[in-house]
Amino acid sequence: QVRLMESGGGLAQAGDSLRLSCTASTRTFNMWVMGWFRQKDPGKERELVAAITYEGHTYYADSVKGRFTISRDNIKSAVSLQMITLQPDDTAVYYCAAKFRGNEKFSSFGQGTQVTVSS
Questions:
Q1: Pick from 105, 42, 108, 113: which is nearest to 81 by CA?
Q2: Phi then psi for 26, rounded to 5 degrees?
């Protein structure tokens, strides 16, 4: 397990940009695949929005391709999610997440940060 602390988020209007940041408390950051999940409704499952390996290989959900960019700073043990052209449908609680290399599932999650996009 790794402890994750998010920052950023807040209120935005459609078309705006926001940046989410997350720092990981681990001495083995290179061993973790980092990702961002979001949960639009407490009753719904969290969905993986983007992920990035230590080497910089990325994954994006179709709904955010071309609008969201995930990046990581391996020196600072940090990961960010740059979001542009936000839409009301992006409104959700966003969670930073970590998955140990070779594992199938993400096992560590931050406390979450709310992103609300108005039309």
A1: 113
A2: -160, 150
Q: What is the DSSP string of 33-88?
A: EEEEEEESSTTSPPEEEEEE-TT--EEE-TTTTTTEEEEEETTTTEEEEEE-S--G
Give the Cα separation of 11 and 7 in Å (integer). Answer: 13
Tens digit of pLDDT at every position of the chain (119 positions) = 899 999 999 999 999 999 999 999 999 999 999 999 999 998 899 999 999 999 999 999 999 999 999 999 999 999 999 999 999 999 999 999 999 998 999 999 999 999 999 99
Report the 10 Å Cβ neighbour count for 86: 21
